[in-house]
Design brief:
There is one protein chain. It is built from eleven helices and no strands. The two termini are about 15 Å apart.
Length: about 300
């Protein structure tokens, strides 16, 4: 098998390997953190103050709907995370290759930011938006009896959305999702590389494999900035995705109208509703994902790139 190298002669990991590492990390993350995502969604959709906080929201869901309700929407969530991370990691690797200096093979901070932003925009349009529309519609349903629920499952939910709102209904909230994911990934990839270098002296292609705990620390720290910066986009995305044309529940006409309406009616703090559960989910999620991804990538580096140097 021919080994891939950067233009400057340095070894590199092929995009397909990055995609595989991301998809495996996504499966693990979804399995562990789905309850936090359900609580976050319920808090963001709560306009009447039903829930008093994270603990109260979680206990109320368990009391009224059972423990399994905390894993509502797991199938689309796990599928979307697996595909999303595969596309994110693979496309980021392709974009980074395009932005590398043709002489040295080095990637500038500007190129790393653009690569991350491009990967975030791509995943938002291709995967994240339709999957999250289905996930949010499933998560906002309340009740114990399946017969009384409008959506019986992810496939039925997607069909109902297309039937009632058209195919464009699956892309409700696309604009804030693009802004959220693009900004998140620009920050995350840049920060992860910086933390790996500063904390562990790890450079891509050096053949070193970080310990899982090291990857988790770098991933956790890299995952903290995005939720704080993109909170309003996430709240608006959730509100837009939860709307149904057939139900006459089209309160928000678009991203900017939603931001101004929420600010006017609920105050500026409402634009960061669900921030704490996002911080409880995204940084730990990135920690879990990178712990798996770095092991997969490290295994490839150790077996293939170092052997090529012999």
């Amino acid at each position: 098998m021919a080994e891939e190298k950067q233009k400057g002669g340095k070894p590199t990991i092929p995009p397909y390997m990055k995609a595989i590492s991301g998809s495996l990390g996504g499966i693990m993350e979804a399995s562990c953190l789905q309850p936090i995502d359900v609580i976050k969604t319920r808090l963001q959709l709560d306009r009447s103050g039903t829930y008093k906080g994270i603990a109260h929201c979680g206990s109320t869901i368990v009391k009224n709907e059972g423990v399994r309700a905390l894993w509502k929407g797991l199938t689309p969530f796990a599928t979307h995370l697996t595909l999303k991370y595969a596309l994110r990691m693979g496309s980021n690797a392709v974009l980074q290759s395009a932005f590398k200096d043709s002489q040295t093979g080095n990637l500038s901070p500007y190129g790393r930011l653009l690569s991350g932003f491009g990967a975030g925009v791509l995943e938002a349009l291709v995967i994240v938006t339709p999957f999250e529309v289905v996930k949010i519609r499933l998560q906002q349903q309340r009740g114990l009896s399946p017969e009384l629920l409008k959506y019986k499952g992810p496939i039925h939910c997607a069909r109902m959305i297309v039937r009632e709102d058209g195919i464009r209904g699956l892309w409700a909230g696309a604009a804030p999702t693009v802004m959220r994911n693009g900004t998140n990934q620009a920050a995350m990839f840049t920060a992860k590389n910086a933390f790996d270098t500063v904390l562990w002296k790890k450079h891509e292609g050096d053949g070193r494999v970080l310990q899982p705990w090291q990857s988790m620390i770098s991933g956790f720290l890299a995952g903290t900035a995005g939720p704080i910066c993109t909170g309003p986009f996430d709240v608006v995305k959730t509100r837009l995705m939860a709307q149904s044309r057939s139900a006459g529940d089209m309160k928000y006409r678009g991203m900017f109208h939603a931001i101004s309406t929420i600010y006017t009616e609920e105050g500026i703090r409402a634009l960061w509703k669900g921030l704490l559960p996002r911080l409880m989910r995204i940084p730990p999620g990135q920690a879990i994902m990178w712990a798996v991804a770095d092991q997969v990538i490290g295994l490839y580096e150790r077996r293939h790139i170092q052997n090529a140097a012999l």
